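Table 4 source record.
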Amino acid sequence: MKIKRRNSTLHRVRQKGFRARMKTRGGRAVINRRRAKGCKRLAPTRHE
């Protein structure tokens, strides 16, 4: 039997968090799109 995927919040935040998004041009585009859409949460945070 396979081991179920263990979710790590820290890994998720480091990969897809706000600071990670702001580092790259494409990431900044993602944040801007989400801002334009009016999303409450722009990127995953540690305490969501």
